[in-house]
């Protein structure tokens, strides 16, 4: 079939746009319904507040506060101690860095299932005997560079396959998920590799003014991510590509290149997360990063980033990560098992998405 | 006018269909007899597609009476029309490409016993239907996606017959066919009518209507202007007069004199296999060039290829003497070319984003220093554009989707003006734009030209092309049929050139 007939062309009379008014008739009748829904949304001040980005973040704040109240009520001082809060933040830091990267990929209309596997591969590669020997001779920063390079390399492969090979992101990154974790097992021979470099561990396990370095890294990544997404041409192009790739292309934006950059960026985030995980656990192993893809996607989605792309929120993602980590912490303090946590997680995801859809419907989007 | 005598299969009398803010059908009369080919003619926007959808049960008419075999009927939903015996073959075929021919034919009314589909029986009767349509070579077990457009059309017809359709509506069936396939389609049609099946045949090609049609109904601006004309005897001039007699007048800005000078845009021998070939033209600064032609003539393909959104197989595009890299939008944009595409919503706009974001989209680097966007400068520039183009409402923070069609189009123009483009390509610039805003868009285009922009306008509304342009190319079947100054052509001549298919 010709391009014209596959692309929906309203100037072909009787196109299959069922229910739409004859597009060619001399009026802009089609724009009336959204306008009406917007008007009805703004009539209710609460609704219009909830429809704004502040409102969405407000919902997340409320959820987090509720979780904290439950934590205090059930675990008392064990929950509300500086130590425990730092524990939560340290746990949140690793998945948080991955989730910030994931926010970019999802805002750009993609998805990446391979983040956990990339974290594993990067952690293994950076802790092999060869790498660690070189690091011992030179400097531990070599391990960091190795992890970042492995992450970026995996992201480059993902991005090239998706942008230039035109493979669906789901499939391309599913393949990477399998391959990267497999490669990690081969390199590590399924053994846990111990990080022997004391300086590396000391640096990343340290605290500055009581705040763990890992948490500081997360904060820096979040701030850079926020600026990048909201204040730069890179972020604007990301949202344009995710919101309407064809419009972006016809406006002269290099859609394929932008798409590839997004996966490389996420790969870098995974490499950094691997470094943080190596420092926290003092190991590199092929089992690191298990189910990170689901945790990261869940955090991004409940944060308010549209899974279909075009709208992304770093602040929302940070809250999403904190909510899940706090939940885990509260459950653990109350001796509730991982299985119960999983059920609660599932319920939260569905509740958040339902809420998001209702907000989206009020905004008059299809 | 709609006869209710026994010989009438379908009667429509005074059908009115309103959509919010517009009357799509304002009194349509039509009567179709068993075994006839009834042709429906009308320009784009005359209401043909709405009429089809009313008959297919997609739209319910607000006023008027539909009779079927002498009795008044109401179609509550598409299935009801189908059950009655009305089948519609849309131009964009509604087949499932991954299923087989037989599965598609019986989609929705599968042959089954005890919940198990009877594939052998379905295959057998599908083969019988295909044979009846004169296409036994199509295998019932072939995947529909592997068939040609012509083959898929036959499958759609077989599906219609499987519903025991007594009336088949064909929306521009020849648009996707080559000459030989059209010939065979006509054979199929005459076999069907011999069996008493009635056909409503929609086409822009007058010679086809003469070949296959019995009677003609002409629609204009949602009304029947003539019905029951003999298809073979009515003179072409009469048909064209009926189609074009206008009731709505738009205000076109007066043309200035195009300054002499070197062409800014030079297109030479441009071609894309299967779409268009050997297209050459030039546009000078300050000139508006119009491409007139019907749907499917290749106008949009040409303009998108000039822009680099499609890769050309042959020919070159030059801007200010510099050859553009083939198939590169970036090269075109960098050379100062802008496109306002045919499908504004899906091809041009970020509907969920603000007006300002949409305007600045192509000029981001201008408002950024080392990648960081100066949002104040961006906003100020957007406000300037909104004011100078009179986009209403004026707020640049408004969500794009809340704007009307005309204002959305102005935002697209604003995007390119902000980029400082020298060559502006406009594809159907007033589609979905209401009457008042149309004149504004026209004035705007003329003003841009007066400011030295080279403009190319593509429109399926011939009046628009003639009114807006300095010079006009008439496009038909993927090639340039005729070129003339706009004031030396009128609508009749253009339609005549298109329908004859060669230069006058």
Task: State the main characteristics.
heterodimer, A: 366 residues, mainly alpha, ABC transporter involved in vitamin B12 uptake, BtuC, two-stranded antiparallel ribbon, 17 helices, 4 strands, 2% strand, disordered N terminus, B: 504 residues, alpha/beta, Rossmann fold, 2 domains, six-stranded mixed β-sheet, 25% strand, globular
Question: What order do the helices and strands come in, and which of them pair?
Answer:
The complex is a heterodimer of chains A (366) and B (504).
Chain A lengths: L2 H4 L25 H12 L1 H7 L1 H23 L6 H26 L7 H11 L3 H9 L3 H23 L5 H20 L4 E2 L3 H8 L1 E2 L2 E2 H19 L1 H11 L1 H6 L4 H27 L1 E2 L7 H12 L10 H20 L4 H25 L4
Antiparallel strand pairs in A: 1-4, 2-3
Helix pairs in contact in A: 3-4, 4-16, 5-11, 5-12, 5-14, 5-15, 5-16, 6-8, 6-9, 6-14, 7-8, 8-9, 8-14, 10-14, 11-12, 12-14, 15-16, 15-17, 16-17
Chain B lengths: L9 E10 L2 E11 L4 E5 L6 H8 L7 E6 L2 E3 L4 H7 L1 E4 L11 H5 L6 E2 L2 E2 L1 H14 L16 H14 L4 E5 L7 H16 L3 E5 L3 H7 L2 E6 L2 E8 L5 H9 L20 E8 L3 E8 L4 E5 L6 H8 L7 E6 L2 E2 L5 H6 L2 E4 L3 H5 L6 H6 L7 E2 L2 E2 L1 H14 L16 H15 L3 E5 L7 H16 L3 E6 L2 H7 L2 E6 L2 E7 L5 H10 L4
Parallel strand pairs in B: 3-10, 3-11, 6-9, 9-10, 15-22, 15-23, 18-21, 21-22
Antiparallel strand pairs in B: 1-2, 1-4, 4-5, 7-8, 11-12, 13-14, 13-16, 16-17, 19-20, 23-24
Helix pairs in contact in B: 8-17, 13-14
Would you kindly provide a written description of the structure presented here, covering whatever features stand out?
The complex is a heterodimer of chains A (366) and B (504). Chain A is mainly α and 366 residues long. Chain A has a single domain, classed as Orthogonal Bundle (ABC transporter involved in vitamin B12 uptake, BtuC). Chain A contains 17 helices and four strands. Chain A has helices spanning 3-6, 32-43, 45-51, 53-75, 82-107, 115-125, 129-137, 141-163, 169-188, 198-205, 213-231, 233-243, 245-250, 255-281, 292-303, 314-333, 338-362, and strands spanning 193-194, 207-208, 211-212, 283-284. In chain A, the strands form two sheets. Chain A has a two-stranded antiparallel sheet with strand order 1-4. In chain A, strands 2-3 form a two-stranded antiparallel sheet. In chain A, a hairpin with a 2-residue loop joins strand 2 (207-208) and strand 3. In chain A, 51% of the residues are buried. Chain B has 504 residues and is of the alpha/beta class. Chain B has two domains: 10-244, Rossmann fold (3-Layer(aba) Sandwich), CATH 3.40.50; 264-336 and 459-504, P-loop containing nucleotide triphosphate hydrolases (Rossmann fold, 3-Layer(aba) Sandwich). Chain B is 33% helix and 25% strand. Chain B contains 17 helices and 24 strands. In chain B, the strands form six sheets. Chain B has a six-stranded mixed β-sheet, sandwiched between helices. The model of chain B has no long low-confidence stretch (mean pLDDT 86). Classes of the chains: A mainly alpha (366), B alpha/beta (504). Chains A and B meet through helix 1, helix 2, helix 12 and helix 13 of A and helix 1, helix 10, helix 11, strand 20 and helix 14 of B.
């Amino acid at each position: 079939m010709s391009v014209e007939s596959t692309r929906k062309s309203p100037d072909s009379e009787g196109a299959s746009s069922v229910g739409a008014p004859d597009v060619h008739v001399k009026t802009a009748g089609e724009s009336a319904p959204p306008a009406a829904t917007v008007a009805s949304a703004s009539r209710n001040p609460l609704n219009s507040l909830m429809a704004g980005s502040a409102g969405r973040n407000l919902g997340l704040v409320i959820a987090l506060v509720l979780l904290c109240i439950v934590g205090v009520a059930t675990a008392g001082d064990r929950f509300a101690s500086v130590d425990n809060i730092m524990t939560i933040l340290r746990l949140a830091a690793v998945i948080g860095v991955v989730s910030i990267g994931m926010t970019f990929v999802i805002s750009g209309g993609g998805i990446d299932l391979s983040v956990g596997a990339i974290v594993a591969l990067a952690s293994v590669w950076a802790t092999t005997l060869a790498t660690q020997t070189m690091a011992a001779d030179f400097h531990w920063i070599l391990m960091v560079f190795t992890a970042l390079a492995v992450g970026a390399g995996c992201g480059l492969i993902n991005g090239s396959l998706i942008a230039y090979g035109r493979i669906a992101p789901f499939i391309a990154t599913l393949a990477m998920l399998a391959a990267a974790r497999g490669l990690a097992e081969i390199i590590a021979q399924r053994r846990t590799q111990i990080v022997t470099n004391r300086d590396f561990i000391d640096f990343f396990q340290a605290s500055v003014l009581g705040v763990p370095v890992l948490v500081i890294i997360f904060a820096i990544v979040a701030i850079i991510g926020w600026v990048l997404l909201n204040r730069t041409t890179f972020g604007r192009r990301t949202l344009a590509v995710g919101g309407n790739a064809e419009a972006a292309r016809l406006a002269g934006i290099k859609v394929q290149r932008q798409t590839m950059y997004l996966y490389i960026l996420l790969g870098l985030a995974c490499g950094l997360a691997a470094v943080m995980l190596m420092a926290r656990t003092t190991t590199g192993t092929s089992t690191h990063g298990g189910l990170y893809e689901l945790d990261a996607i869940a955090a991004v989605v409940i944060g308010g980033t549209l899974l279909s792309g075009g709208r992304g929120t770093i602040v929302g993602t940070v809250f999403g990560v904190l909510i899940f980590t706090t939940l885990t912490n509260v459950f653990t303090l109350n001796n509730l098992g991982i299985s119960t946590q999983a059920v609660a997680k599932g319920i939260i995801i569905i509740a958040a998405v339902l809420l998001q859809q209702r907000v989206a419907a009020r905004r008059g989007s299809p | 006018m709609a006869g209710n005598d026994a010989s009438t299969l379908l009667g429509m009398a005074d059908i009115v269909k309103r959509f919010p803010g517009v009357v799509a059908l304002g009194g349509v009369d039509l009567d179709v007899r068993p075994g006839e080919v009834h042709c429906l003619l009308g320009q784009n926007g005359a209401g043909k597609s709405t009429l089809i959808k009313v008959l297919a049960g997609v739209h319910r008419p607000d006023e008027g009476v539909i009779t079927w075999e002498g009795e008044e009927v109401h179609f509550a939903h598409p299935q009801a029309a189908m059950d009655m015996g009305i089948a519609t073959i849309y131009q964009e075929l509604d087949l499932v490409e991954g299923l087989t021919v037989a599965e598609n034919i019986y989609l929705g009314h599968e042959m089954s016993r005890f919940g198990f589909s009877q594939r052998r029986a379905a295959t057998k009767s599908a083969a019988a239907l295909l044979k009846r349509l004169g296409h036994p070579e199509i295998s019932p077990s072939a995947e529909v996606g592997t068939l040609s457009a012509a083959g898929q059309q036959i499958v759609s017809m077989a599906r219609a017959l499987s519903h025991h359709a007594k009336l088949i509506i064909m929306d521009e069936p020849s648009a996707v066919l080559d000459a030989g396939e059209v010939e065979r389609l006509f054979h199929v049609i005459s076999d069907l009518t011999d069996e008493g099946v009635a056909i409503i045949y929609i086409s822009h090609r007058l010679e086809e209507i003469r070949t296959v049609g019995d009677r003609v109904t002409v629609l204009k601006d949602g009304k029947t202007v003539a019905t029951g004309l003999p298809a073979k005897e009515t003179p072409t001039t009469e048909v064209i007069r009926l189609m074009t007699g206008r009731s709505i007048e738009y205000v076109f800005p007066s043309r200035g004199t195009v300054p002499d000078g070197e062409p800014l845009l030079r297109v030479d021998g441009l071609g894309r296999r299967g779409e268009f070939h050997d297209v050459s033209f030039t546009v000078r600064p300050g000139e508006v060039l119009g491409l007139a032609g019907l749907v499917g003539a290749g106008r949009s393909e040409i303009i998108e290829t000039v822009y680099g959104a499609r890769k050309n197989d042959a020919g070159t595009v030059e801007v200010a003497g510099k050859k553009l890299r083939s198939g590169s939008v970036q090269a075109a944009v960098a050379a100062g070319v802008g496109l306002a595409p045919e499908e504004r919503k899906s091809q041009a706009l970020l509907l969920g984003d603000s007006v300002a974001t949409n305007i600045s989209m192509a000029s981001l680097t201008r408002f950024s220093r080392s990648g960081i966007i100066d949002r104040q400068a961006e906003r100020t520039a957007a406000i300037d554009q909104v004011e100078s183009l009179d986009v209403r409402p004026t707020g640049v923070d408004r969500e794009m989707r809340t704007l009307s069609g005309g204002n959305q189009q102005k935002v697209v123009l604003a995007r390119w003006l902000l980029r400082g483009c020298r060559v502006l390509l406009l594809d159907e610039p007033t589609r979905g734009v209401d009457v008042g805003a149309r004149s504004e868009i026209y004035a705007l285009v003329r003003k841009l030209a007066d400011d030295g922009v080279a403009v190319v306008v593509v429109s399926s509304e011939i009046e628009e092309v003639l009114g807006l342009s300095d010079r006009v190319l008439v496009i038909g079947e993927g090639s340039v049929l005729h070129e003339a100054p706009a004031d030396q052509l009128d609508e009749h001549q253009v339609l005549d050139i298109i329908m004859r298919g060669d230069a006058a």
